[in-house]
Amino acid sequence: MLKLHHDNPKHTLHTISAFNFLSEAIKRTIAEKDIDLVVMGTQGASGTKGVIFGSNTVKAMEIIRECPVLAVPKDIQFTNPMEIVFPTNFKTSFKRQKLIYLIEIAKMFESTVSILYVSKKHDLTELQKSNKQLLEDIMEPISYSFHHLTEKDVSEGITSFVESRNSDMIAFINHKHFFFNSVFSKPLVKEIGYKPIVPILALH
Fold first, then answer.
1. Looking at domain 22-203, which of 3.40.50.12370, 3.40.47.10, 3.10.129.10, 1.10.287.70 is its CATH number?
2. CB atoms within 10 A of CB 78
3. Which of 3, 126, 174, 195 has its CA 20 to 30 A from that of 189?
4. Could you give the count of Cα atoms lying within 13 Å of 166 in the half-sphere of its Cβ?
5. Nearest to 169 by CA among 38, 78, 46
6. DSSP state of 45
7. Where do the structural domains in the chain lie, given as residue ranges?
8. pTM of the model
9. Are 61 and 175 contacting, i.e. CB atoms less than 8 angstroms apart?
10. How far apart are CA 82 and CA 109, in angstroms?
11. 3-state DSSP helix/strand/coil percent for the chain, to nearest 5?
12. What is the percentage of the chain residues whose pLDDT exceeds 70?
């Protein structure tokens, strides 16, 4: 729980009361306060075992596009994110502006970004190859590596990768056709295989 009275001179905490839906209240606050990052703590859907994030958090990650949203599962102890997993299917071209927060976080903590491609197919199309090369150019200032898993299910592939490597964070660009449709939707909050111990950073 956040305490308004603390001894850390680097932080100033304020409370805001709003009579509105949570996501709409957040969007309004982002606009009024010029917010750079939204951080949401969550314990899943009413504490349901195996459900990674509650519906408020998932909805915020889906609809808030003005700045990144970092979802932090219950009982997380902060550690420097030494490895950040970045899932992608290489089907959409990358923009430097969309990845600027990920680059800055990786620089700040000297993190390695592990770019994860989950697909049964080994060969990339010409478009995917072009997008991969563009991503290499964007990632040039930081440490990064490419990985490929031949899993049928994207969420299972991400899960097994994170678990096997004890990764510290997952970051993704919020293209609904890639991440949300395969991991979070139908139902909105979907059970996935690993324990909710890794923060997820939604970029836009």
1. 3.40.50.12370
2. 8
3. 3
4. 3
5. 78
6. G
7. 22-203
8. 0.82
9. no
10. 7
11. 35, 20, 45
12. 79
